[in-house]
Design goal:
GO terms for molecular function: enzyme regulator activity. The protein is of the alpha/beta class. The protein has 2 domains: 126 residues, 3-Layer(aba) Sandwich (Rossmann fold); 31 residues, no CATH class. Helix content is 34%, strand content 28%. The chain has 5 helices and 5 strands, in the order αααβαβαβββ. Strands 2-1-3-4-5 form a 5-stranded mixed β-sheet, covered by helices on one side. A hairpin with a 2-residue loop joins strand 3 and strand 4. The longest helix is centred in the first third of the chain and has 17 residues. The two termini are 45 Å apart. The model has no long low-confidence stretch (mean pLDDT 82).
Length: 196
C-alpha cells in the first residue's frame, strides 16, 4: 500500500511540475512579443545606422584609402525602459569593423590596459624586448555617440510606443559632426476583450 501511495505521489508531482521544453529560434527572426524594445529593434537600428554611414559620400571618401580610428561613447537611454544600449553600440561597432572601413579603440578597458602596461614595464617579470611600450597607442580621430528616446501613449486598450535612435560621428580634433542618422520605430498593441 505504501509503495502504491508513493508511486501515486510521484506521478502527481510529475503532472504538477509540468513538462517544459526549450527550443532554439532564429535570432534574426522578427520578435513581436510586446511593445517593449527587443532584439528585432536592435537589429533594425544597427543595420540602418551602418548602411546609412557606409553610403554617406564624405564617409565613402574618407574611408577610400584608409581606416579611420573611432571610439564609441555610451548611448544615452532616455526611455522609461531598462535597455542595454551597449548591445546596440556593440552590434553597430561589429558591423562597422567587419565592413573593413573602420578601426576602433575600446575606452571601456583603459584601466585594465594600463594595469597590464604597468605590469609589463614595472614587475620585472616580462622580457623588456617583448613588453608593450607606454605611450604607443593610437588616438581616436572620431567619437560615435547617440541617444535612444521614446514616447509612450495609451488609450483604453491600445498602447502605442514610438522609439527614436540618433547616432552621431564627431571629429574629435575639429569638433565637427561629420555624420548623423536617425531610425524611428513605432509599435502598437491592442488588448483583446479578454485582456490577452
Amino acid at each position: 500500500m505504501i509503495r502504491v501511495l508513493s508511486m501515486m505521489m510521484l506521478g502527481a508531482a510529475l503532472v504538477l511540475s509540468g513538462c517544459s521544453t526549450v527550443d532554439y529560434g532564429d535570432a534574426q527572426a522578427r520578435e513581436t512579443v510586446t511593445t517593449d524594445f527587443g532584439s528585432t529593434d536592435l537589429q533594425m537600428i544597427a543595420a540602418k545606422m551602418v548602411d546609412d554611414m557606409l553610403v554617406f559620400p564624405p564617409i565613402v571618401q574618407m574611408t577610400q584609402n584608409r581606416r579611420p580610428v573611432l571610439f564609441v561613447d555610451r548611448v544615452k537611454n532616455k526611455t522609461t525602459e531598462h535597455i542595454d544600449t551597449e548591445s546596440i553600440t556593440d552590434t553597430i561597432q561589429s558591423k562597422l569593423i567587419n565592413s573593413g572601413k573602420f578601426r576602433f579603440v575600446d575606452m571601456s578597458v583603459v584601466d585594465r590596459v594600463r594595469q597590464q602596461l604597468d605590469y609589463q614595464s614595472e614587475s620585472g617579470m616580462v622580457d623588456p624586448s617583448t613588453a608593450a611600450q607606454m605611450g604607443r597607442q593610437i588616438g581616436a580621430e572620431f567619437m560615435l555617440y547617440g541617444n535612444l528616446s521614446s514616447i509612450v501613449k495609451r488609450d483604453g486598450s491600445t498602447k502605442d510606443v514610438y522609439y527614436k535612435f540618433t547616432l552621431k560621428l564627431l571629429n574629435i580634433q575639429s569638433g565637427i559632426i561629420e555624420w548623423t542618422s536617425e531610425k524611428e520605430i513605432r509599435k502598437t498593441r491592442k488588448k483583446s476583450l479578454f485582456g490577452l
